[in-house]
Amino acid sequence: MTDKSELLRQLRIERDERPAQAASSRRWWWALVLVLLLLAIGAASYLWLRSAAPAVKVAVAKPLQSGAAGQSGASILDASGYVVARRQATVSAKITGKLEQLFIEEGVHVKEGDVVATLDNRNATANLLQAKAGVQQAQSALLQAKAAAADITPIYERDRKLAAASVISATALEQSKANYDAKQTDVAVAEGNLAVRKAALEIAQRDLDDTIVRAPFTGVVTTKNAQPGEIVSPLSAGGGFTRSGICTLVDMDSLEVEVDVSENFIGRVRANEPATLKLNAYPDWQIPAYVIAVVPPADRSKATVKVRVGFKSRDPRILPEMGARVSFLSREQNAAGGGSGAPGVTLPSDAVQASAGAATGTVYVLHEDTLERREVKLGARDGDSQTVLAGLAAGERVAVGDFTKLSDGEHVKVVDR
Fold it and tell me: I need a surface site. Which of 48, 93, 292, 392 has the fewest CB within 10 A?
C-alpha cells in the first residue's frame, strides 16, 4: 500500500506550479522579442545613417614628376601667352619707285645683306651719269683756274720787285696784286664747286644703290606685301598699287613668349627664375625656359602685368604667334629637387576647394570613412590637374564631391570614381 501511495503521489499534478511556469515562459519570450526588436532598430538605424551619409569619390595624391631637361620643382604659377619675335621688320625701299624684281617668298630664309628686291633704276642711273659729268666739268674748271693762278704768280712777283726799285708806280703794283688775288679766288671757287659736284655724285650713287633692297638682318620672310610692277614708297600708307613695305622679316633667334600675369600674383615671378613652356601645338613637349623680365607698368584694364619668357634652346618647331602655356618654377624648389623628384603632389582640380588663383585651398582627407578638413598650399593649375605644394603627402586619399555637404569629422559613403 505504501508503495502504491507513493506512486500516486508522484503522478499527482500540483495545480499551483503551472501558472508560475507559464509566467516565466512568457517573460523569456518578451525578452527575446525585445532583443530582436532592438537589433532590428539598430540595423535599420545603421542602414539609414549609411544611406544618409554623403556619397564621395576618392582621388589619390600623386607625386610630382621631374620637369623637362632635368628640371624639377613645383609650378608656383601658370599663365598663357603667345610666341613673339623681339626683332622683326617691315622691309621697304628708302626711295619711291616701281618694283622691278622680287627675289623672296613666304618662308624663305635670308641672310643679312641678301638682295630682297630691286626697283626701276633708270632715272637713278641717268642722275648718276649727270653727276659724274658735273664732277668732270668741275675738275676741268679747277685745272683752268689753277693754271691761270700759276701764270699770274710770276708776274705779280716781278711787279713787287719793280715797285720796290721804284721802276713802277704803287698804282701798277696794286693792280697787279688785285689780278693775282682774283686768280687765287677763282681757284678756291673751283675747288668748292668740285666738292659740291662730288657730293652730288655721292647722292646720285646712293640713290642708285637704294634701288636695291637688302635684308637688314638674318631671318625668315613671313609675309610678302608687294608684287613686281607696283609702286613702293616709304612715305605711303598703302592703297591701290602703292605699297609701304615689300615684305616682313622675322629674326627667329629673337623668339620669346609674352604672357599676362594677374597683378595679384606677380610677386611670385622674378627675373632669371626657371620656367617650363608647353606650346598648344605640341602639348606633350616641355621646353626649358627662364624669365627674362617683368615689364612695367601694369595694364589697368586687365589688371595684369606683362612678363617676357625666353627659350633656353632653339627649335625650328617654335613659330611666331603660337599659343603657349608657361609654368613658373621656384628656384629654391628647383635646387632642392636634385633632379630626382619634385616636392608637392598633384590632384584632380575638382578635389580641391579654392577660389580662382588663390594661393591656398581646402581638401578633405579620408581616414576609412571619416573626413579630415585640411588647408593646403596651392601651386599651378593645369587644366584638370591642380598642384599642391604643401599640406598633403603622396598617397593620401582625398574626397571628391559636393563640398557644401562635407565637414570635418563627418562620415561618408565612398563610391567608385
Answer: 48
In one-letter notation, the amino acid at residue 85 is A
For 391, which DSSP code?
Answer: S
Q: Which ranges of 235-313 does DSSP label H, i.e. alpha helix?
A: none
User: pLDDT tens across 379-392, in order?
Assistant: 777 667 788 878 88
Report pLDDT digits (tens) over 217-275: 999 999 998 899 888 888 765 555 678 889 999 999 999 999 999 888 888 888 989 99
Strand duo 109-110 + 397-400: pairing:
unpaired
The answer to whether residues 56 and 400 touch, using CB atoms and an 8 Å cutoff, is yes
Residue length, the chain? 417
Out of 19-23, 208-212, 234-238, pick the least confident: 19-23
CB 145 within 8 A of CB 187: yes
Nearest residue to 132 via CA among 62, 200, 54: 200
Q: How many CB atoms sit inside 10 A of residue 390's CB?
A: 15
Cβ-contact 74, 330 below 8 angstroms: yes
Q: Identify the helix (H) or strand (E) that includes residue 207.
A: helix 170-209
